[in-house]
Amino acid sequence: MMRNLTQLINNCLSSYPTLIPYKLSQEIHDYFQGFYILESDDSDFDLHEFVLAGKAFASPAAEMHTVVLANWTDEDSPVWSSSPVGLFDVTWRGQSLRVLLVLYGEYQTRRVIIAENAKLAHDFFYEVCLLGYTARAEILVHSNGVFATDEKLYEQIRLSRLDDLTLSVEMRNEIEENILNFFTSEDVYNRYKVPWKRGVLLTGPPGNGKTQTIKAVIAQTKLPGIYVRNFQSQRQTASVGISKVFKRARELAPCILVMEDLDSLIDRSCLSFLLNELDGFSENRGVLILATSNYPEKLDPALTERPSRFDRKIKFDLPGPEERFEFLRTRSALHPEEMALDDRELFEIAQLTEGFTFAYLKELDLSATMRFSRAPMESAFGQCLRELVKPLKSQMKTDQKIPAATTNVD
Fold it and tell me: What is the pLDDT of residues 7-16, one digit of tens each?
């Protein structure tokens, strides 16, 4: 029997592309006679996430070969499995039903629920889609063609505060006016008949607070967020990924859509799709897009020079002496008494560290702490800081010669 159902699906997939959905529907209804069939192409129906959330139990059925793919996100995440094609026996709320997943066309998935009656099928469909649709208290991450929650990233966001960042008064005002005020100004947009949407591009050298600012903004607004790690995957073109991400953002609105390292996410093959989603026929009402780029000169002018796509560009420059002093003083306040420095010494170190990013100032403080902890009686903490400035400056020059990577270092 397994070969019959597998052969049935294979025959359907061999049909003329535009006929595949119809052929699938026809054959599935014939094969599962006597059952209620509910079909959908809605990506909100994610059986894998529903099972992972502990909402149901599913196992591959014997009638059909099930494809199980291993997925790897990064070194901090476990390897996880997904099944884009297969038939599953599902137990939900003490009731049994089946779910058939068939991949066809341009990375489309036909989702089929086979149940004893219409109510069971529709109730199950609603609950699975509701979980996929609702970001709840977590941020959704789009990676390798699927959406998933990321508790580690959410925890980082939850602990982020704008008050903890060393920003100039001008920068704080810029963030307040162009980012934070967006969600409290819907009536103003409506009054002046301006579409309630906004795009802000954060630029500047890596390590100067772009990523931390975005996390703090999401934490302060307490709104759903979508974080894009990539648009493309083995089973999904970048253009399809772009459409999926913006569709989900519109469903979650008001929300924040984050596209970090935009220059590495987009190339010429998918640029037109992104431009269309930014200011095409679809209305991105209530969607705030925050994008970052360490190298904005790599971005196409069509993205950067038209306000309807990115209305504002905020540059995170290297910190000046005052910002370096405030950052070092904030770090110093966290140290034990034997490592405390007065303002005179902190000001001196701030002058020595011209050209340092916030990331390198943090590394300076950490390296000095490690050196001081090994021999606290032999040298003062301030002296440890001064001795490490020169080697870190040399490292900065070396890093600047290395071709830019696509990982976030803010």
Answer: 888 888 888 8
